[in-house]
Design a protein that fits this description.
It is built from 17 helices and eleven strands. The chain is α+β, with helices and mostly antiparallel strands. The longest helix has 22 residues, at 384-405. InterPro entries: DNA/RNA_pol_sf (IPR043502), Group_II_RT_mat (IPR030931), GrpII_Intron_Splice-Mob/Def (IPR051083), Mat_intron_G2 (IPR013597), RT_dom (IPR000477). This is Group II intron-encoded protein LtrA.
Length: 445
């Protein structure tokens, strides 16, 4: 299934982007009919399908659609609703995702029908907002990545911005006020149909379960005045639109120069890198957030001198270090301790004693998928030590698993029977790369 954007859609997106870029005050009004186009809905389906998400509150899965009415009929029915103006957003299913600190994060899962509709709208309106978004915003944007954000921070450290406001927003996705968010969207889009759809998705009732598994409404529909569910296809774009106000103020008022403070934002995670004073930049951040009806999580917001200590951003620990041989300072970017703990715990779980009845190829396959996913993200910049630790842990856990299968109790015997070469050659264990995963020309240390 090709995820390449069809030329017809790409042409539309380029025209919308160019118009928005050339006329920053222009407001778009003739967009609603675009979301019912066959090419847009078909591509929206492919994108949503590739994410392999869970069913929504109606229990309808991708497989049920494909083996039931069929994708073509499903999309034809979906196209008819916007045309007839009979589209109604369905309730959102809430699930709670455990966090590392023991708390839980609410995740809102719209139905597949609503997710495809949201993706269709996103395909049309995203280029308009992309024309406005600032360079220092990296989260959930085309051709931008978490690594780009980390590189920006490293470059700022090189330039002397070592006093860091490590900010944490308090329940951002749950706190965005609908009225102000819609007003921000309406600065660029005045198409009533599009605005009505977005409002429906924001106001959709959220259905969760109590401790006994009984479904209950936890979001009150029309009475719900804030929040956009994490898990909704369009939520990251809307969240970026709202915090763009902070980005825009920083850029238009030249605060990087005036306050000697550089902002780097990835969705609701951001840091302010300061050369000297942190009080004035922090005061500006608090002021803007207050106007947006948002707040900092004071317990998790810290001021860090990056020459003395590290701070965590997007799973990495970042600080200025000195080379062991040269003594020269350099930005040290490595996987954070929490990231290491998490992957090790996952590998331990995937090789537990309770899995010995499962075919060994299945155990190795799940281990390899986790290792590849982790390495693809964290094999970056100064990651060599962490990569070695994960490689050794993976070897150790698979070896222990084999010992349990073969009832080998002595560790020395286990090493002789299942040496590292045996794990890779015979059982196909994925070999974590241990050399630094970045351009060595950057290393002056």
């Amino acid at each position: 299934m090709s995820l390449t954007t069809p030329d017809t859609i790409r042409t539309l997106q380029r025209k919308l982007y160019a118009k928005a870029k050339q006329e920053p005050a222009y407001r778009f009004y003739a967009l609603y009919d675009k979301i019912s186009r066959e090419d847009i809905l078909s591509h929206a389906w492919r994108l949503v399908r590739s994410n392999r998400g869970s069913p929504g509150i109606d229990g309808v899965s991708f497989e049920a659609i494909e083996t039931g009415i069929g994708v073509e009929t499903f999309l034809q029915d979906l196209a008819r609703d916007p045309k007839d103006k009979t589209y109604r957003a369905q309730p959102v299913r809430r699930v709670m995702i455990p966090k590392a600190d023991g708390s839980q994060r609410p995740l809102g899962i719209p139905t597949l029908r609503d997710r495809v509709a949201q993706m269709a709208v996103k395909l049309v309106i995203e280029p308009i907002f992309e024309a406005d978004f600032c360079e220092h915003s990296y989260g959930f944007r085309p051709k931008k990545s978490a690594h780009d954000a980390v590189d920006d921070i490293a470059n700022a450290l090189w330039a002397g911005y070592t006093q860091v406001i490590d900010a944490d927003l308090s329940k951002y996705f749950d706190s965005i006020p609908h009225a102000k968010l819609l007003a921000v969207v309406a600065e660029r889009i005045v198409d009533g149909g599009i605005l009505h759809l977005i409002k429906q998705w924001l106001k959709a009732p959220v259905i969760g379960e109590d401790d006994n598994g009984v479904k209950k409404t936890v979001g009150a529909g029309k009475a719900n005045r804030q929040g956009t569910p994490q898990g909704g296809v369009i939520s990251p774009l809307l969240a970026n639109c709202y915090l763009h106000i902070l980005d825009r103020l920083w850029q238009r008022r030249h605060l990087k120069g005036k306050l000697s403070a550089h902002l780097v934002r990835y969705a609701d995670d951001f840091v302010v890198m300061c050369r000297k004073d942190v009080e004035k930049p922090l005061k500006v951040v608090r002021y803007v957030l207050e106007r947006l009806d948002l707040s900092l999580n004071e317990a998790k917001t810290h001021i860090v001198d990056a020459t003395q200590a590290s701070f965590n951003f997007l799973g990495f620990a970042i600080q200025m270090s000195r080379g062991a041989k040269t003594g020269k300072p350099y930005p040290n970017v490595r996987p954070a301790d929490k990231s290491l703990t998490k992957i090790k715990a996952r590998l331990t779980e995937l090789t537990g004693r309770n899995l010995t009845p499962i075919p060994l190829s299945g155990v190795a396959g799940t281990v390899n998928r986790s290792l590849r996913g982790w390495a693809n993200y964290f094999h970056y910049r100064n990651s060599s030590q962490a990569m070695n630790k994960v490689r050794y842990h993976a070897e150790d856990r698979l070896r222990i698993h084999l010992m349990k299968r073969h009832k080998v109790k002595d560790r020395g015997t286990g090493f002789r029977l299942f040496p590292s070469a045996h794990l890779y050659r015979r059982h196909g264990l994925y070999k974590i790369p241990t050399r630094a995963g970045w351009n060595p020309a950057h290393a002056l240390a």
